[in-house]
Amino acid sequence: TDAAVHDNQTAHVRVLPSFSWRLRRIFQVNVFFWELSVMSDVALAKPFVQATINVLSSMTGLSPVPGKPYIKNTDKAQGDVSAIVGITGCKSGAIALSFSQSCAIALVKGMLGDAIEDIIADTRDAVGEITNMISGQARATLSEMGLPLQGSTPSIIFGANHSLSFPGQVTTVAIPFETDYGTFTLEFCFQ
Q1: Maximum alpha-carbon separation in the chain
Q2: pLDDT tens-digit series, residues 12-26
Q3: Most buried pick, 77, 143, 151, 182, via CB within 10 A?
């Protein structure tokens, strides 16, 4: 009987390490998928940041410098003129650019020179076109990475203290940019 008790105790000892190994493995797998989720959001953001810098530099002569990203906890836009593009495909969400008035005017002047006829119409067109170009360039990069996405036509919103509503209950990340002519913010969220 002593041998039988000893064998039972040994069997329990063998089960516990196997059980704890499984728990550790489950924990490791969950952490891996959480990290993958976080990394995929960063991977999604980088093409939009790079496209923002490329498009504004080449199309307007502005030299945007990105600031520190943060989680946006309000629907209030960071600028006076905003454009938002809905994103669908293997991920869904939206991106928005929100320009201060001075930055929006510099953007229009950079694109049109002295050919400004109607500042409101030209600003709406320029902000919409720039946002569409940024969205298209970023989506092309993401498609090369195996993430095909489609974008909607930009919606333009004017006015101080306007709101930007993103689809669903997702976290919105905002990245402020500085230029010689004012500030703007890139915002995005993906599900």
Answers
A1: 100
A2: 444 445 555 445 545
A3: 77
Q: What angle, 0 to 180 degrees and rounded to 10, lies between the N-to-C axes of helices 101-112 and 119-144?
A: 80
Task: Return the residue matching tokens 């915002």.
Answer: 187
Q: What pTM did the predictor assign?
A: 0.75
Q: Give the SS3 label for residue 15.
A: helix
Are the C-beta atoms of 47 and 141 separated by less than 8 Å? yes
Q: Would you call 148 helix, strand, or coil by DSSP?
A: coil
Going by the DSSP 8-state scheme, the letter that residue 180 receives in this structure is T
Instruction: Give whole-number Cα distances, 3 to 7, 12, 38, 81, in Å.
Output: 6, 14, 53, 82
Angle at 137 between CA 69 and CA 148, to 5 degrees: 95
Rounded CA separation 141/80 (Å) = 29
Question: Considering only 17-21, 32-36, 92-96, which range has the smallest mean pLDDT?
Answer: 32-36
Burial class (CB in 10 A: 0-12, 13-18, 19+), 48: buried
Task: Tell me which residue has tokens 């298209």.
Answer: 136
Residue 65's CB is within 10 A of a number of other CB atoms, namely 11
Q: CB-based burial of residue 56 (10 Å sphere; 0-12 exposed, 13-18 middle, 19+ buried)?
A: buried
